[in-house]
């Protein structure tokens, strides 16, 4: 089903190397390919430093350097080549929501102006009245109220600040949002509210999300498909159900086994699996291979055969 949908974002064999040519060169993204379909939420998981943020920022063209090889297409257009009007349009169509709303919102601006910044930069409101009206509708959409508009971001709780960040991203009517650990800094009790808000808005506005997280339980809840990253490489891609219920790559299995179980008995029985990453360094050629329809695992041909046998 998913395959028939339009691809909004296409990553083809992306490499991105920080400090290229220097002693501290770091290949943060290593030959990564995947697509994000229009209207879906693609969850990107993996431990700290695995390259998730780098992928999100590379798609949004937020680095002052280009990717080192490969191609990123947004709505069919090569992101690297975007300039002038096309780049401006892309900047509005593809937005980011950050982990720490405190750090990402300008504390000296009133909420009203924080939210309207994108409208102002892109000249999207024809009059002060229209600007006010758009800001008010956004505030309603994210569950804040009009009285909040004249206050400053620091006067709000973490969850409310994230709502301000979401309203701000939505102001320019994006098609695509990279949500980079948008709930990690929030109290557990607030996390579900913000995730539900993102889901509701997605439906209402027909948005496409790249949702970055290390909290696998929430990723499962919000994502249609999930990609698992380790050391800059994509090790497994599948539907959310497949990756959770039938994980194949040993790294994915270890990540899932580290999630605490909700009830004490299962938690007592839980055995965390330890992943041995040295197999990634054995010099064998690996690539993402389809094990069952729509479920891909980074493997050699022999490993893929073995995975297929085990999946039957
Ligand atoms: N601007 C930069 N300059 C140099 N190295 C960087 C830069 N940004 C990230 N890196 C490195 O690239 C690798 C991938 O980092 P990235 O932030 O993408 O990982 P992540 O999976 O998002 O981790 P986290 O969950 O901690 O944000 C890391 O080794 C990191 O140190």
What do these coordinates show?
Pfam families: ABC_tran, oligo_HPY. The chain has 312 residues and is α/β, with parallel strands linked by helices. It has one domain (2-311): Rossmann fold (3-Layer(aba) Sandwich). It has twelve helices and twelve strands. An eight-stranded mixed β-sheet has the order 6-7-8-3-9-10-12-11, sandwiched between helices. Helix 7 links the parallel strand 7 and strand 8. Helix 4 packs parallel to helix 6 and helix 6 runs parallel beside helix 7. The longest helix has 18 residues, at 188-205. The radius of gyration is 21 Å and the shape is globular. The protein starts with 6 loop residues before the first strand and ends with a helix. The mean pLDDT is 92. Adenosine-5'-triphosphate binds at residues 18-19, 26, 28, 46, 48-54, 214. Adenosine-5'-triphosphate is lined by residues 18-19, 26, 28, 46, 48-54, 214.
Low-pLDDT stretches are: none
Present as ligands are: adenosine-5'-triphosphate
Order of helices and strands: EEEHEEHEHHHHEHEHEEHHHEEH
Q: If helices are DSSP runs of H or I spanning 4 or more residues, what is the number of helices?
A: 12
Quote the beta fraction: 15-25%
Indicate the overall shape. Answer: globular
CATH superfamily heading: P-loop containing nucleotide triphosphate hydrolases
Strand neighbour order, sheet with most strands: 6-7-8-3-9-10-12-11
Computed Rg: 21 Å
CATH class: Alpha Beta
Q: Return the CATH topology.
A: Rossmann fold
The residue-averaged pLDDT reads 92
What is the CA–CA distance across the termini?
22 Å
The number of strands is 12
Oligomer: single chain
Helix percent reads 25-40%
Largest sheet: 8 strands, mixed
GO molecular function: ATP binding; ATP hydrolysis activity
Membrane topology: Peripheral membrane protein
GO biological process, one term: transmembrane transport
Subcellular location: Cell membrane
